[in-house]
Amino acid sequence: MLRVRIELLPDGDEEAATLLAAVDISNDGSGTQSTGHYNAVLKEAWRTAGDQQAIYTTEAKIHDVDRELIRPVQLVSIALQVLAPVKRTTATSLDSWGEIVRGPE
After folding, report:
1. Segments forming the whole domain that contains residue 41
2. How many domains does the chain have?
3. Is residue 100 a part of any domain in this protein?
4. What is the DSSP letter of 91?
5. Quick check: is 37 in a domain?
6. Would you say which domain of life the source belongs to (predicted)?
């Protein structure tokens, strides 16, 4: 199982870390030797009126992931694209949001 935690570190202060969300990705056992199928769960913490915290859970199934091509970080990206897609208009769908400034070494 993979688990990714998303934390807010005010001013970089580790002691003041606040958990915003967590994603768990687990193999569902139904794939083949070359293709994996996964369950993904996103839990997000939200502050509501009156500063109450609520946890929202979204679950998804991810199908046909090529085990030879997809690295764990790419699997996390796929899961987040399914669990929390970014809505874009047709006019901006091809616009880049950034670029690689330094590649893996």
Report:
1. 2-83
2. 1
3. no
4. T
5. yes
6. Bacteria
